[in-house]
Amino acid sequence: MKTQLYHLLMFLALVLVLPSCGKDDPVTGNGKEDNWEAEGEGGEEGDGEYEDDKESFNGDYLIGNWVLTNLYLEDEYGHEQETYQVSDEEDVIQFMRDGSCRNFFVWQDYSGQWKTDYDDVGSWNLKNDQLRLLYYGCGQQTVTLNQLTSNELSFTGYVKEERTTYKMTYRKVDKVTEPGTQSEDPEQPDDPTEEVPDISFNTKIKKVYPDQFILECSYGWDHQNSIKRAGFCWSTRPNPTILDESVFISLTSQSSNTKTISCKVDQAGTDYYVRAFAQINGKFIYFDDLQVQTVGKDIQLKVRYDAQQDKIAVDYDIRKDGIYSLYFYANLTMQGDFVKDLGGVTNGDSGTKYVVDYTCYRYYAYVVDLATDIEYHSNTVTKKYPYY
After folding, report:
1. Residue stretches of the chain with pLDDT short of 70
2. pTM here?
């Protein structure tokens, strides 16, 4: 019933975020030719199909119901295109004037029962020709509008994880079939006891860097078929949501599992809040916050080459309660990895320790909190000339 292309579309299913802005000719839109085979598809992220990357559009045109009519995908192996009838309602996006947005897909199986594959809500933002998007499964992205008129919406984007360029065209319609309009299984009404499955996340912070932190998560649940998506979101504010930075994880069919999650950030020495979430029966539920501070404030670590000493210097300044062990790591070119114990440090300790300038490709320092086993890492120095 659904082609392989459709399954990739589900992965690309999006919710547009934040409030709208921008102006354009209210009749002609951008007036550019719709050329599916135009050169430039499949380029690096940020490459535009057209020279004018700052085209502005009238955000008022977005308000209403939009149905997917054309999908073009291109990757390193070739390209593929699929055309849909408006009546198929293959993918529906609803833009509301208050800045909210809804994206869903409702279909009938061979037995005539109605199914909802996804039903996501969020907000949207339009600035010049840039739409900020939230993809369920690949994080937040930004796409470039190709055309926006009173009845046609077209945009181009690049999914880095899939190395895929896509172009999607939607047609505005008056009405659509919304989830819940039809009973999805009239012979088996919803069981209220299954609306909130029993799910647990046991999350620990394992490593902290100036620009990221690493989580280790073990989880378990009942009624796993009710859980559509799960993951982690983080922000500098408490109680982050999926509209902040987020990453999704794949839940296996096992009753429990353990995963490692990398959370990228852009501010060193900053407090972040992170928590797990799960989408259950069309609604997102959130779990308790964890707070973590990136390296650069209460714990400061830096490695550098000291030309005067002809050694590698490890600068440290500890202002966080606890007892720590300080280590130096070097990726040696011939002998493999090397770790040197530089001794213990505690709150209030600061200074510089020196190690031999090893013949190594890269090196860094880290401290281990002996109470929590969390590692706090310095910057990493990579030499310009590997010895391999």
Report:
1. 1-54, 108-114, 122, 133-141, 161, 180-199, 221-228, 251-256, 281-282, 333-335, 384-388
2. 0.54
Q: Is 260 helix (H, G, I), strand (E, B) or coil?
A: strand
* Residue the block writes with tokens 């690096």: 44
Asked whether the beta carbons of 51 and 80 are under 8 A apart, the reply is no
Instruction: Round to whole Å and give the CA distance between 60 and 96.
Output: 10
Q: Which of 86, 300, 70 is nearest to 177 (CA)?
A: 86
Long-range contacts of 286-291 (CB under 8 A, 24+ apart): 286/233, 286/239, 286/241, 287/201, 287/203, 289/238, 289/239, 289/240, 290/203, 290/205, 290/215
Measured between alpha carbons, how far is 333 from 134 in angstroms, rounded to an integer? Answer: 42
* DSSP structure class, residue 193: G
How many other C-beta atoms are found inside a 10 Å radius of the C-beta of residue 167?
24
Q: Which helix (H) or strand (E) holds 125?
A: strand 125-127
Q: Given this model, what pLDDT does residue 84 score?
A: 85
Q: Burial-class residue 387 by CB neighbours within 10 Å (0-12, 13-18, 19+).
A: exposed
* 260-312 tens-digit pLDDT: 899 999 999 999 999 998 877 667 888 889 999 999 999 999 999 999 999 99
Number of residues that make up the chain: 388
Tokens 């609803």 -> residue:
94
Q: What's phi and psi for 12, nearest 5 deg? A: -90, -5
How do strand 299-306 and strand 290-293 relate by DSSP bridges? unpaired
